[in-house]
Each structure stands twice: as structure tokens, then as C-alpha cells.
Amino acid sequence: MKKHSSRIRDEIAKLQEQLKTAETREKERIGRIALKAGLGEIETDENELQAAFEDLAQRFRRGEVVPTEGKGANEHSRKGAQTTPVASGPAASGDNEA
């Protein structure tokens, strides 16, 4: 059975709305985590921060980061992977502003 183009457009519109909702949830989740980590207090170039996030994402994809505390620590652990500590606070920002 063939679908009419109007029905396909309706389905596409629904999927686009679902995508928008899912992306909003992801942005809010990542934003909350970033604020908890203190990133809201660091003054840095947005491109630099994005590059740091991309590096972090690659480390997770390669299995180099293992959660050690909190929700999901056991379910995300990878055998043989090592944790890499990430410093936070003024000294970690690389900017020695007082």
C-alpha cells in the first residue's frame, strides 16, 4: 500500500518534533552536568571548550574513561580501561585570573 505524500509529510513533521524534543533533553542534561563540574565559572573561548568536549567524547568512545562514582558506574565500566582524572576549579582552567 502506497502512502500519500501528505501522510509522509505529517510523519516527517512528527519525527522532526521528536528529534527537537530529544535534542533539547540532551542539551539540558549536558548543560546540568557541565554546570555541576564548574564549567559555567570558567571564562574561555567557545571553540576551545568545544574542542575539549570533542576530546572527552573521543575518550569515552575509545573506552578510556570509566565512571568511578554515581549512577551507572558499574554498567559503564570497561574491563582494562583506566580512569583519567580531570581537575576542576581555578587552577584547571589554565587562566590565572584572580
Number of E strands: 0
- Rg from C-alpha positions? 20 Å
Please work out how many helical segments DSSP would assign. Answer: 3
- Give the helix/strand class: mainly alpha
Which H/E pattern describes the elements? HHH
List the quaternary state of the chains.
single chain
The termini sit apart by 69 Å
The largest β sheet comes out as: none
Q: Which overall shape is indicated by the principal axes computed on the Cα atoms?
A: elongated
Strand percentage: under 5%
Helix content: 40-55%
Q: Can you give the mean pLDDT?
A: 78
Q: Would you give an account of this structure?
A:
By secondary structure, this protein is mostly helical. 54% of the residues lie in helices and 0% in strands. It has helices at residues 5-36, 46-62, 73-76. It is elongated and about 55 Å long.
Key features?
0% strand; 98 residues; mainly alpha; elongated; 3 helices
Sum this structure up briefly.
The protein has 98 residues and is an all-alpha fold. The chain is 54% helix and 0% strand. It has helices at residues 5-36, 46-62, 73-76.
Can you lay out the helices and strands and say which pair or pack?
Elements: H1 5-36, H2 46-62, H3 73-76
